[in-house]
Amino acid sequence: MAYRPATIEELAEMIRDAAVHGRSLAVSGTGSRPGIGPGAADADLDLTGLGGSIDHDPGELLLTLPASTSLDHVERLLARAGQCLAFEPPSPDAIWGLGHGTIGGAVASGLSGPRRPFAGACRDHVLGLSGVTGRGEIFTAGGKVLKNVTGFDLPRLLTGSRGTLAVLTQITLKVLPLAPAQATLQLPADTAAKAVRIMADALMVDGGITGAAWSEGEGEVQLRIESSPAVLPALVDAARARLPASRLIEGDASRGLWTATASLYGHARADEIIWRCPLPASRAPALAALLPPDARLRLDWAGALAWVLLPAGAADFDLHALVAQAAGRDGHAERLRGPASPIPARAPPEPGVAALSARVKALFDPADILSPAAAPGGAA
Fold it and tell me: Are 232 and 290 within one domain?
């Protein structure tokens, strides 16, 4: 059974009908993120029929658009105006191979790319949302200006909620200008410990850095530097004078490298199990030391995000235990892709967090019909 509303009023009516009959709904757009998506339900709620107009105000750096707008279209629209999504949403295509998805999926998943430590997370750029709760109530939250929030900050709450609290229909985002010039320094580092030290050293002193990552297989740190064409050479020279010997990649080659870094293009093999592990950067070397020899490690966010790639035969490997050993309660692991396993994709939340989440869920979706099998939200 499937629902495909064409208007927000139809959507609200469908949700109310499902609640009355106790029918759970798998909330999805193009279905590009199955690893964190709706999971099994009594009926599919297909949101691709919900259209609407796009309002882009380049002068105010504002973009309001339907949640069903494809991510590709959003990025092309902004690029024509010399702008971008500041949180650099990773494409899910390299992980699941089902396309780039929609802007609604990007916001609902709450995932951010390499620019996250420097420009903020996805939730920091969502100014307003419209949608329908699990009660069938149409709502609009936030607006088109940055301001202090004195009440319940619904845009931040719903960003990363993965369709479990409300169905998003319209989103207002703060966008940023594209950097006019970009270059990447590649520095040798054969261990995670060396890589984290280099990235921390660079971030404490050098200006213009908007990306810091490391690949174990390539044995090198990547530092992205962005600025105006007039200033970029001086920033690059200053960094190269302080840091270990490096190679320089410029322009489109640099941009392509970071697109691949954000979404694991060319890094994850087709049969590998993919784990995503946010943790304190200082604990990344400890995690690296605990990994089995056949694991592959990539670090982003200057070491605060670890991608662990395991061979297909390691489905029973408990990465939750390793992250807990390396980072305690300050880190967590989430399996985005892999075969069925007795190891859960996500560790159960602590009792206090679980209780609070249940109370919030009851406020928005008391009948528990919206994506009840979806992965828990709140991704970093």
Answer: no
Do residues 278 and 268 lie in contact, with contact meaning Cβ atoms separated by under 8 Å? no
**pLDDT tens across 312-337, in order?**
999 999 999 999 999 999 999 999 99
Can you read off the two tokens belonging to residue 193? 């410990």
Give the dihedral of Cα atoms 114, 330, 318, 380; nearest 10 deg: -30
pLDDT, mean of residues 180-204: 96
Q: Are both 166 and 74 inside the same structural domain?
A: yes
Other Cβ atoms closer than 10 A to 307:
21
Whether 227 maps to a domain, the answer reads: yes
Residue-level pLDDT at 279: 98
Which amino acid would we find at residue 193?
A
d(CA 184, CA 247): 8
Q: Does residue 380 lie in a domain region?
A: no
For the chain, how many structural domains are there in total?
4
Question: For residue 281, what is the DSSP state?
Answer: G
- Rounded-to-integer distance, Cα 222 and Cα 188, Å: 9
Quick check: 88 pLDDT over 70?
yes
> In the structure encoding, which two tokens stand for residue 335, read together?
């399996």
* Stretch 62-71: mean pLDDT: 97
Verify that 137 and 37 share a domain, yes or no.
no
- Residue 45 · residue 26 · CB < 8 Å: yes
CB 13 within 8 A of CB 136: yes
Residue-level pLDDT at 245? 84
Q: Are residues 22 and 100 in the same domain?
A: no
In which residue are the tokens 């949403």 written?
Answer: 89
CATH code for the domain of 299: 3.30.70.240
For residue 33, what are the CA distances in angstroms to 98, 218, 250?
A: 8, 28, 32
Domain boundary among 158, 177, 196: 177
Instruction: Flag whether 230 is in a domain.
Output: yes
Q: Considering the entire predicted model, what is its pTM?
A: 0.94
**Six-digit token pair at 197?**
């030290």
C-alpha Rg value of the chain to the nearest Å: 21
List the CATH number of the domain containing 255: 3.30.70.2190
Q: In what order do the strands lie in the sheet with 43-46?
A: 2-3, 43-46, 25-28
Closest CA to 318 of 280, 346, 337: 346
Name the domain boundary from 142, 177, 212: 177
Q: Token pair of 303, please?
A: 């070491």
Task: Verify that 242 and 326 share a domain, yes or no.
Answer: no
